[in-house]
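Q&A log
Question type: sequence-to-structure
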Amino acid sequence: MKILHFSDTHLGYNDLDIINNENINQREADFYDAFSQIVEQIKEIKPDYIIHTGDLFHRSSPSNRAITYALEKFKEIESLNIPFVLIAGNHSTPRTNLSSPILKIFENFKNIYVSYNQEYKRIEFDDVVFHTLPHMNDDTQALKHIESCEANITDNKRNIMMMHCSVGAWYLMQEFGEWVYPSNKEYIFEKMDYVALGHWHGFGAVGKYENVYYSGSSERTSLNDKRNSKGFILATFEEKLNIEYKEIRIRAIRQKQIDCQDYEHSVESLDISDCVDAIVEVKLKNLTPLSSIDISNKQIKDIFASAMSVSIKREFIKDASTSDIQNLEAISLEEYFLEHIKDDSKEIEYERLKSKVQELFSKYEELSYDTN
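Response status: OK
Response body:
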């Protein structure tokens, strides 16, 4: 048995105010392209089942273009006669009961099975049972549905658990209504053949479990996600579970540095050959207030004229006259903050606070990127 697992496709996401030749926001088009690549892989692989673990759309009320695109692609998948199970994520779940869940539009498809009502739903086939737990806003109600899931495990069939939530992490993504799976219920995972997760955008296994995986998103929604490749999981069930991660092609994100203490030489030595049509993040290091005025954003963007988009971060030289650090060093606000808490904290406490600080500044990076 082969199951293709993908997630967090965020159809309709747009950013950067760049319009392509078809008058579509270029980043929105990138997300459609990523989805199309996965559909083509589905046609080639012909898995026994397809599963999507949430956030099909970026918003609970997506644009007409996003809905139209999704319906066209789902018709292509429908024609393959492969069962397709998908659940709602927090981006696809209305914040009030006044809105109709967007996944209802797929209920009339013969081979598509949806789970979106913030409740456990059992979807059963001859050889496998899918235990679906879509995004839930109420933790108390979620616990009840988790217990329903456990009670419905079937011994003579494969059991696949599908969820959109945070598992095995003590911090959140700071999104509305985010759901954290209770750690005292993780023992259920050992009763499942596979636990398919959505919400976190990086591919990977969870903790000690060999059968619990996030497939990751199909595209990047922020520069903070620049280190993760994108793709989907092909899970094969034979004597034991085999997980194969299949990467797709997406728009590149490049990071470049310019040392402003030796600006001209630093610019001359830059390799920009890999920046064509890329999203480029440029860090200007060792800036003084005066040099920061002299070096304009346009000047930097002209260097990377072949890039699709350029964002610029500025790091200033720390003033030695107002610091207990004798040598001048270039530091970011994040580094400065970490140095401060390191001096005032024990090692264990510092490690805990460090993760919090890095999470905080990653959100700052994301917001800065979104508004550039």
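Response note: Helices lie at 26-45, 64-78, 139-151, 263-268, 289-294, 297-303, 333-344, 347-371.
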